[in-house]
Amino acid sequence: MTTTTTILESITAPEGVGRPIPDAATREVIGHAPVHTVDDLNRAIVNARSAQPAWAALGHAERSRILTAIADDLDASAEELAVLLSREQGKPLNGPNARFEVGACSAWTRTAADTPLEPEVVFEAGASRAEVHYDPLGVVGAIGPWNWPMMITVWQIAPSLRMGNTVVVKPSEYTPLSVLALAAIYNRHLPDGVLTVISGDREVGAAIAAHPDLDKIMFTGSTATGRRIVEASANSLARLTLELGGNDAGIILPGTDIAAIAENLFWGIFINTGQTCAALKRLYVHDSQYDEVVDTLAKLADAMPLGNGLDEANVLGPLQNEKQFDIVARLVDDAREHGARIVTGGEPAPEHGPLFYRTTVVADIDDGTALVDEEQFGPVIPVIRYSDVDDAVRRANDSTQGLGASVWSDDPDAASEVARRVQAGTVWINQHGAINPHVPFGGIKASGYGQEFGVAGLKAVAAPKVIQR
Predict the structure, then answer these.
(1) CATH number reported for the structural domain that contains residue 224 in this entry
(2) In this structure, how many other beta carbons lie within 10 angstroms of the beta carbon of residue 18?
(3) What mean pLDDT value characterizes the chain?
(4) Which Pfam family, an example, fits this chain (predicted)?
């Protein structure tokens, strides 16, 4: 079996040539990422354009067979990939973290291979018939994030490849090794030029957004960067799928059994140490159960082991980078200065490493505070009191973002009624952030547009063609 060291050695650049990549927990250098340029990007796109017709000509069955073989290879290398991911990104091996993410890479690759997409008959009357077929777009440019670097890259590349496109990927500057390792396994099975990773800086990302020879751009990241991609791609009219920031609201309805939902609620908030676009970021709780929810979350936060991700006991890790650490610290400090109550946490945890921050529950806070209005993207939850459900829905909707949301209740009918009124691309009931490779996922408002996963995800990386007679 290929070891992690072998995978890392095969992708890392020589010291002094590549850019050093630190361990997220210890900040020790674990490898050196290649430093690709815009010229490298241009060559990769030329090669992808050249390779695309033959890749498309293989047909769905053969491309699906190849993707299934890739999924098998990912399974065989899962532990090695998880260790590399844990070190570079920071998420622990256990819990819904590194091993979970690598398993998701395999699952989403298999789903892209197995999901049928047949021509659709949209009109038929006598001799008249209209069908919608789905052809490859051509070359896809994919720009990925640092929080779930492997999994989200698979969301971008697996359906694109299945539909007959070739792909050029730019990983985050913070987590390039994980994506390079993932692509190395994919490329054991793919023809040359079909999938290329360009490990560059923001200049390379900007060049992808404005490139005249890309047919589709897929981006997961901040709303601000998403807006720049929209502007830059205007001349090429490349199709876009944008999964942008989220400030997801959760509403707990009165009379809910808090003990029954506690674990799902905790992980809906703190999965990947809160560094998840569709994590629960602000929680609205009725007066009658406010203190119980705050106390329950604080006890769980204090009990969940925090530390180096390679320690099998830990399930919460560091902030991935200094910039995000500073954002979290700033928002908590601002909440404290504005009179919010820090129930637990609220400070760094330097005994674990320089970028660790204690799991934090903040109470007695309201809308208009930066921690509520902005996306914290870290291990902090503001718990906001409400007395009227209609008012809670209004406040949950009073955001420029709309990626996900959740409603928590013992009454499924009441939960469904409220869920229909909440403005988000996905509204979960008694869970948050539970994604499924068969179920469409995407945001509304400033959280982006376009859907991924399942049939909708395949259509998003294809060109619809109507054949009518």
Answers:
(1) 3.40.605.10
(2) 18
(3) 97
(4) Aldedh
In-domain check, residue 49:
yes
Residue 396 sits in a domain whose CATH number is 3.40.309.10
Annotated catalytic residue, options 88, 173, 243, 452 = 243
Residues 390 and 460 occupy one common structural domain: no
| 23 SS3 class | coil
**H-only helix segments in 304-428:** 322-337, 370-373, 389-397, 412-421
What pTM was computed for the model? 0.96
Pairing of strands 404-408, 248-252: parallel
Counted residue by residue, the chain has a size of 469
In this prediction, residue 184 carries a pLDDT of 97
Query: Does residue 437 belong to any structural domain of this protein?
Result: no
String of b and e for 143-159 (b: at least 16 CB within 10 Å)?
bbbbbbbbbbbbbbbbb
pLDDT tens figures, 359-392: 999 999 999 999 999 999 999 999 999 999 999 9
Measure Cα distances from 415 to 78, 225, 256, 328, 408 in Å: 38, 34, 10, 31, 7
Count structural domains, the chain: 2
124 in active site: no
